[in-house]
Amino acid sequence: MTDTRQFGDLATQLVAESRRSTLTDTLLKYNDSLVRSIIREQRDLEKMTETSQNVTPAMLIYQTTIVRNKRCLLAYHKHRMDRLRDMYWTAGGALPHILSNQDIRNKLSPHEVDFLRQYSTSVMDYRAGFSNELDITASITHPPKDLHVLVHVIRDCGIIQTELGSIDFQKGQRFMVRRADIEHLIVQGYLEEV
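User: That's the sequence. What structure does it adopt?
Assistant: Structure tokens below.
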């Protein structure tokens, strides 16, 4: 049986995978083998265009496929970076919270982990200039109604320094505290609003 795969089929599979990820609102595992196959196809097509000295219709097809494959690869990686940025902001800028989740970590390529680390570093560097006035990692989708909030401790957090002193958050306890002091703990899943 012969292989009747056409040029660009692999790139189409990659775009379909991104679309499936969007429709299911999940981050699928990085498809390293498919990305490498597309890059290999790119190199083969580029060799074919370099060796041919005449401009033929086949050359036009090769060149169009090269451009299309590049666009598909860029779209796939842009989609994944956007998903990673969304995860970062959903977690309130808590990179260790994201990377400690083995389910998420297993879906990422090493380059994506590096991207997340560098992105977090850039955000923290930017934030350092005005962190006393504004917390850019705080959620803006649900603005706070009160300055103080009643919280229930879901997981031990240890001793947290607040504006009014230190509080030892132990599992099962409830506290009335300033929202600004513990917002990041709510986002990270250590505390829950009551």
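The chain has a mean pLDDT of 85.
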